[in-house]
């Protein structure tokens, strides 16, 4: 996408959300612009969804999310550059609203907001650990050597100190002091405390209160629970501690109360919950891996669509910490590669050059980076049948991998570049599984087919073209101009107008606006290219009797006036006023079907298009 188009896209999106003044803050994740709007009622979700370059719009977790895909970072930077008054919330998330929805949705969204910022570090460190496993397994590196230990430290850093990362991120989510939160959790990893632990379950005394000792390195839930409790305690403290001494008193009291509370109560509860959750998930997988894989492989894409898929991350990380492996991630990989298969199937089946380009461009990040949202929203949801194909393929491959208890040894995004993360005794099963997902999905997408018309709003299909002028329809082959009657410019219809007003036959963008006013080109939001030519040889009038009402690049709605012309004056000059409406990209469609020839009103349907 050219830079100028980023600026156009940025402008259209900001206009759609109600203008820059309606944006409280903005940041982006891997594929989405995430707006916090002052007034949601000012945002036009439907119109934004139709903008070229936007895959879809999702509302949730207090955010208005515009899904862009791979180019989101470029669009984001363009928005920030064009609208400097919009708050760039990439670093500071304190302005985010609390999650909304039912209790389950709120829980998933909260987990997502906690884990989302640290995923990049978690995935990178995980890949180093996976590569080291491969190198040492094949004796390419010595475990006792200094090189291995240095790289091992790089790979273990995020996982060992994960409670600290979670403390900071949780504090941002619950809007409490991040550094006090870090200090509270750091106490659980400080040598004076860890030195007391000879084995998990040992008991010591804190002023006569028994303390069950546990190691917290690599744990997930204790840190999150502790800072959640602290978020309420901090609000209480700020009501009673004078501002004049808050600089030391707030952190002193917080540490004095929260560290013992975490050690005595919250920490052991958190460890027990985490272990229990992992036990339940893995027991279910062990008893019926086939069923678990079927459900996760088929259903993961729908969690992505809801935007709550990040909420499953704690379960996987907890498994890796406690067990050294995770069985959920391979099942998710089935859904990832099934989505990639959709892109291949659409690419092979579609005859629309824009659709093929989207399929090809979105398949690469899915295969190499595990990023599937451009496929999910741009192809699967848009064409519907591919969504079914990916669910079937993901379910079959997920069930296959679940049946054999396929394992991931570190946390990564499933992709071809992260294969070492699945290295081990079930690696061959993983390779077979993702290949199945990709191949079955591609085949089902291709053979089930899809109607590109399904991508448009049901209330107005962009594969239907309305009359551009009121008048009597005639066969275009009867027109007294060989260029049009021979259909060298494309198939279409001719109308002998009874009124001197040309209107938009579809919703779309003006691609060509001739200054003489006698002709105009428009591209619908469904990529139908239409040329409207008023009269034969009327270009010779050099604009006389014509008034052009729109300009090139302008977006128009169906029925909007485009040209006004003096019908009688043009006829009196001796010109044939027959108006041609031609689909110039007719070759992209299996059939350009003209309705029954009759007298028509403006915007009344006159052409149907069928995709190949």
From TrEMBL:
Domain PTS EIIC type-1: 109-464
Primary subcellular site in the record, as a coarse category: membrane
Annotated ranges, domain PTS EIIA type-1: 481-585
SUPFAM superfamilies named in the record: Duplicated hybrid motif, Glucose permease domain IIB
Annotated localization: Cell membrane
MF annotations from Gene Ontology: kinase activity; protein-N(PI)-phosphohistidine-sugar phosphotransferase activity; protein-phosphocysteine-trehalose phosphotransferase system transporter activity
Name of protein: PTS beta-glucoside transporter subunit IIABC
Species the sequence originates in: Youngiibacter fragilis 232.1
